[in-house]
Design a protein that fits this description.
This protein has two domains: about 35 residues; about 475 residues, Cytochrome P450 (Cytochrome p450, Orthogonal Bundle), CATH 1.10.630. It has 20 helices and twelve strands. The chain has about 500 residues and is α+β, with helices and mostly antiparallel strands. Helix 7 packs across helix 19 and helix 15 runs antiparallel to helix 17. A hairpin with a 3-residue loop joins strand 10 and strand 11. Belongs to the cytochrome P450 family.
Length: about 500
């Protein structure tokens, strides 16, 4: 009897194994030859599942791997069974644009734009077009140039605090120089925080039990975990399981970041301030009032996207300027000729600083703060043509910014930092560069709402820093920016250290 049962079990397992094998073979054949995207080239393993793409993303080498795929396979690459990556600039306006009668505006991909850990939706992750439009209208005046210039005192004061911090000759754990990446994180954190919450910002920071910049450090650590959660949603039920059994690292990053946003939102709401910070304009916007939970969710992403991305740009720009001393001297000369004192530097005056603006644009091109990302969209019903090919409805599509910006057909010496390419009258610029193909703030109805503030911050910090200081040393022998940086949706930056010497006047 036992032998018979054993035999039956063995036969069952054998049959079950054969069924599984047949299913796998059929799946391989379908994705290779019968799937609507079967004709598009790409890494062989990518066509069979999303795992390979998420491996590339979470390895931190995704931007370079994806760029290599485009160099090998062309402007359209199948990076997952139902996901096409484009390196064609013209695809950007179709995929991210406002839409036409022939091709409606494409919806955000809900697998990429996942809800926050508390289930809330905000200006970044909201996929419903009507809801997103309502949110954008509610937030838009906060980021208008007129409102930002009205609050310029925050930008100037916080930048002056940054100047004092980097001028201190101190050693951290015996290491030479200032951890300038961290200082950039802190100055953008302070600017965004006070712009958002006004008078309650400092009050809340002083009340919290952790150190002043604990939230800033949490934000940096959270950027990677956001991509982990995007991978998690590919496995049915795993996201819900992790909500119940929260791993320690998730509690210390994703959940703590959401808690900080909620705590600061509640503190500002209790203050009933009339100061025209971002919260003031949210509360006084026309249309349906947002709930406190929604407001906190908006500040969750405003603090994340606003602080980290600008700090990323500043870090990259400083690194490349340190490796291009001629460009650094040109920038310093422009700042020091134009302004008699550091206090004379204002946002309006910086609009007309030609070389500074060229440095900003080139910094955004060579190290775009969100350039590692695939901001995927869903092809609408009926399908459409992109880059000369018909793409079926329901396909996930995205443009890979890194590949567009590092394509030698778009920019000459694309891997080199050349601010002069943005100046029509200076060599070695303007050698066939297609400048309009650099879109660091994306494009269309979901383009970056914080673009104006980012430009103001980038100009102000660079202008004041290079007016006041010379960079006398940085750890060039220890780091290689592209070797040591990790490209997730946002970047994890190397530990750039530098020493600054105030210019005698």
């Amino acid at each position: 009897m036992f032998f018979l049962a054993f035999t039956n079990l063995r036969d069952f397992l054998y049959s079950f194994g054969c069924v599984i094998l047949v299913v796998i073979i059929l799946r391989l054949l379908y994705f290779s030859y019968l799937h609507p995207l079967a004709k598009f080239p790409g890494p062989v393993v990518a066509k069979f599942g999303d795992i390979y793409w998420y491996y590339a993303l979470l390895s931190g080498r995704g931007p370079w791997m994806n760029h290599d795929w485009h160099k090998k396979h062309g402007m359209i690459v199948r990076i997952a069974p139902n996901h096409l990556s484009f390196s064609d600039h013209h695809a950007q306006k179709i995929i991210y644009g406002f839409g036409t009668k022939q091709i409606p505006s494409m919806a955000k991909d809900p697998r990429f734009f996942t809800p926050e850990v508390d289930g809330s939706m905000n200006i970044i992750n909201e996929c419903n077009k009507m809801e997103h439009s309502r949110m954008r209208r509610m937030l838009s005046f906060s980021f208008s140039m007129s409102n930002l210039l009205e609050n310029e005192d925050v930008l100037i004061r916080r930048t002056n605090e940054f100047l004092e911090a980097i001028g201190t000759d101190s050693r951290e754990n015996g290491m030479k120089g200032v951890n300038i990446v961290q200082e950039f994180n802190y100055v953008t954190f302070n600017i965004m925080g006070e712009m958002s919450f006004g008078d309650s910002w400092e009050m809340r920071l002083k009340e919290q039990r952790e150190s002043r910049y604990h939230w800033a450090d949490v934000i940096v650590d959270t950027t990677f975990m956001n991509d982990v959660m995007r991978a998690v949603v590919c496995f049915p039920g795993l996201f819900s399981l992790l909500e119940v059994f929260k791993p320690t690292h998730s509690r210390n990053t994703l959940y703590r970041h959401a808690e900080y946003a909620t705590e600061h939102t509640e503190a500002r709401l209790k203050l009933h301030s009339v100061r025209k910070d971002f919260m003031y304009h949210i509360l006084n916007s026309k249309g349906p009032a947002a709930t406190p939970k929604e407001i906190a969710s908006h500040f969750n992403v405003i603090m994340m996207a606003g602080a980290v991305t600008t700090a990323t740009f500043l870090s990259g720009a400083l690194y490349y300027l340190c490796h291009n001393r001629q460009a650094m001297r040109k920038l310093q000369d422009e700042m020091r000729r134009k302004f008699a004192s550091v206090s004379a530097i204002t946002s309006k005056e910086l609009f007309d600083c030609v070389y500074l603006n060229a440095v900003v644009e080139e910094g955004l091109r060579i190290y775009p703060p969100a350039g590692a990302a695939h901001l995927s969209r869903i092809v609408p019903e009926g399908g459409c043509r992109i880059s000369g090919e018909f793409i079926p409805a329901g396909t996930r599509v995205s443009v890979h910014p890194w590949s567009v910006l590092r394509d030698s057909s778009n920019f000459h010496a694309a891997d080199k930092f050349i601010p002069e390419r943005w100046l029509s009258n200076e060599d070695p610029g303007q050698k066939g560069d297609k400048l309009e193909r650099s879109l660091p703030f994306s494009y269309g109805p979901r383009g970056c709402l914080g673009r104006n503030l980012a430009y103001l911050e980038m100009r102000m910090v660079l202008a004041k820093m290079f007016w006041k200081y010379d960079v006398t040393w940085f750890n060039a022998d220890e780091i290689d920016w592209e070797r040591d940086t990790k490209g997730y949706t946002l970047w994890e930056k190397p530990a750039l250290r530098a020493t600054f010497k105030a210019v005698a006047r």
